[in-house]
Amino acid sequence: MIRPVDVLLEFLQAEQARGVTHVHLDEAARVSLREIFVRSKGGQAPPPRPPSPDPTVASVAPPPKPAEDLLDDGNDVPSVPAATELVVGGGTRAEKLESLKRQAKNWAPAKALGSLRDVMVFSEGNPDARIMLVGEAPRHQDEREGKPFAGPAGQKLTDILKAMGLTREEVYISNLVKFRPSAPRQTTNNRMPNAEEVAVFLPFLRAEIQIIRPTCVIALGEKAAEGLLGLAESVANLRGTWHELEGTAVRVTYHPSHLMQSGGDQQTKRQIWEDMLAVMEKIDLPISTKQQGYFLPKA
Ligand code: URA
Fold first, then answer.
1. DSSP-assigned beta bridge partners for residue 179
2. 57 has which bridge partners?
3. Res. 262 pLDDT band, cuts 50 70 90
4. Which of 121, 132, 136 has the most ligand 1 atoms within 8 A of CB, as the residue to mutate?
5. Which of 126, 137, 214, 279 has CB 3.0 to 4.6 Å from 177, enough for a Cys bridge?
6. Quick count: other Cβ atoms within 10 Å of Cβ 143?
7. DSSP letters of 72-116?
8. What is the Å distance from ligand 1's center to 256 Cα?
9. From 142, 145, 176, 192, mutation site for ligand 1 pocket: most ligand atoms within 8 A of C-beta
């Protein structure tokens, strides 16, 4: 009798022979594989999990594994811990976010990386916001103040929101990664989060979006765009149009730090502003003629 696992092995070996090194597993495939694994050990298959996306349950899976890892005898130590389930409790949005926050604090896959600092900076803002902004990871000052975008980049962000007629309290601000990435001999210097750090916290970010259900998400910078949309492209290529993530509109724009690094040039300011005008339109905010004209070259 041909067993399903033999068919799977044959398929993976054929893929490997073609030079394929990674296979993508969706939630259904992971459940099936888990069942096969449990049965092969003579155990009971676990009860099926509800299909994603379910706003109350999210799962974190290790990054796609090489085909040969799927075929191994299980003796290797995995570089990323096994799948861990995130269960969202609470009734209101605020309670659900609080439940996420509690779990993020001791999130085993993140701890296992050993590359993040100890102070958590989860998010800030209005759980009922129509706009959610996503950055990279907390930095020195954010860690000190316990809130995202508390430093100079945050001041720029506050200015952008003000120009839109909004305050920080009206929006929801979060990051891909909830702890400041550590670096050797670290003082005030910051490091970009790496792919593993982003991957372990992605279920939280997705759950935050499912809970808040904003009208739109603004991805600040290339890293946030890649983390959210899986698109490894420059902001120049991704901005200026709407993207979609599980039914939520996503606008990519330059990170406020980019604005500071570019010396605040007029063209970058205008491009960010055009993205913000699109966001204002999306949430039906009134736009004055003066606002329409911000950062346009003087005639
Ligand atoms: N502070 C944050 O919280 N996120 C960023 O991306 C940058 C600064």
1. 120
2. 54, 87
3. confident
4. 136
5. 137
6. 21
7. S-S-SPPSSPPPEEEE---SSHHHHHHHHHHHHHT-HHHHHH--E
8. 9
9. 142
In the block, which residue shows the tokens 């890293």? Answer: 223
Comparing 4-18, 24-38, 180-194, 196-210, which segment has the lowest mean pLDDT? 24-38
Query: Cβ(109) to ligand 1 under 6 A?
Result: no
Tell me the two tokens of residue 86.
Answer: 């995130």
Q: Is 204 in the pocket of ligand 1 (CB under 6 A)?
A: no
Instruction: Tell me the pLDDT band of 263, cut-offs 50, 70 and 90.
Output: confident
158: CB partners within 8 A, 6+ apart = 149, 168
Q: Is 122 in the pocket of ligand 1 (CB under 6 A)?
A: no
Q: Report all structural domains of the chain as residue ranges with CATH numbers, in order of start.
A: 1-49+65-91 (no CATH), 116-292 (3.40.470.10)
